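Course assignment 3, question 2. Fill in each field.
Student: A.L.
Task: Predict the tertiary structure for the chain below.
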Amino acid sequence: ESHPDTLVTLYYQAKHQFNERQYHEAETVDRRCWEMRRLVLGAEHPVTLASMSNVAACIQDGSRLAEKIQLNRDCLLLTRVALGDRHPDSLTSMNNLGVSLVRQGTPESLAEGADLYRECLEGRREVLGDRHVRTLHTMYNYGTLLTEQQWWGESEAMLVECMD
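Answer field:
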């Protein structure tokens, strides 16, 4: 069951279920894959961390948002330790945590989400470049948050840059 080919098959099964919006089913498979990868590869292996992130992505139920945030927080911490602050996977974990915190919607979580978007955007610009799709994705997330918070000057500049 822990054979690398089995784990790849589980990954693709979960990805298909996620794409079909079968989030609960995808989460079940992703959790199984994550557990096996932790046993086989170790908790800080990049592939294990990707599985952890996949589990968090599957949690769509708002009543489980705290769990999703904690998984994203743990994933970011482990990814930073394993790969460094500016690794693309660390930046993706940072963006994912920002999305979850913004979704929570409290003043504290919005402020933390904005800080994470800002840091992620800076890192993605540095590592991936201004026009990379992931950089633009974070730029859009950050610009949208700024607009929702009515921080007009900064949000307009951010979204215009994203659209150019």
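Instructor remarks: The mean pLDDT is 91. The helical segments are 4-19, 23-41, 46-58, 65-83, 88-104, 107-128, 133-148, 152-163.
Grade: pending
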